[in-house]
Amino acid sequence: MAEESFPGWHGTTILAVRRGGRVVVAGDGQVSLGNTVIKGAARKVRRLSPGGHDVVCGFAGSTADAFTLLERLEKKLEAAPGQLARACVDLAKDWRMDKYLRNLEAMLIVTDGALMFVLTGAGDVLEPEHDVAAIGSGGNFALAAARGLMETDMDAEEVARKAMAIAADICVFTNGNLTVESISG
Questions:
Q1: Residues 6 or more apart from 117 whose CB is under 8 A from it?
Q2: Residue 158 CB coordination number (10 Å)
Q3: How far is it, in rounded angstroms, from Cα 166 to Cα 146?
Q4: Which of 4, 48, 71, 159 is least enclosed by beta carbons within 10 angstroms?
């Protein structure tokens, strides 16, 4: 299909919230093609256990590209067990330098409960401010809502669920069908 006529895939909101020694990663289930919802119950948050160390990942963008990146991240974590920062930097280097990987269209939020990173194809390994990170079509809505809710006494999961509900009310590419994973740091 010509790029001009292909409307593109949209419909992901991934949010990570760190509070009280826990990180909660929540992702909605919507996948849209143009103005049409193709699937409402996609699972975009995964728990990995490479080398016996749990890691929770959420992805936005092309599913095949995201799975390619998750497989590469798993290999990096197997090579450096328990070293999330090192694995993320190594993945970002490969992503930026490799001809094939450079064309992948996805973003990741990755956490081991202690550290939290946003990884992009531009070579970014970003540690978010304010203990909140968000990516995807509705990411900015979820991020704004979560940052406001961090002023309350809600726990990490309550903040994530409420912020995702707010994002789903505002963003047409986000729904309320959530996958939520929690990990302690």
A1: 84, 85, 88, 108, 109, 110, 111, 125, 126, 127
A2: 15
A3: 9
A4: 4
Half-sphere exposure (CA, 13 Å, Cβ side) for 140? 2
Helix (H) or strand (E) holding 39: strand 36-39
Q: What is the pTM of this model?
A: 0.91
User: Which residue in the list 12, 13, 111, 174 is annotated as catalytic?
Assistant: 12
Task: State the CB neighbour count (10 A cutoff) for residue 143.
Answer: 21
Map residue 45 onto helix, strand or coil: strand
pLDDT of 1-25, one tens digit each?
Answer: 344 444 455 568 999 999 999 999 9
13 among known catalytic residues: no
What is the torsion angle, in degrees rounded to the nearest 10, for the CA atoms of residue 172, residue 70, residue 95 and residue 61? -10
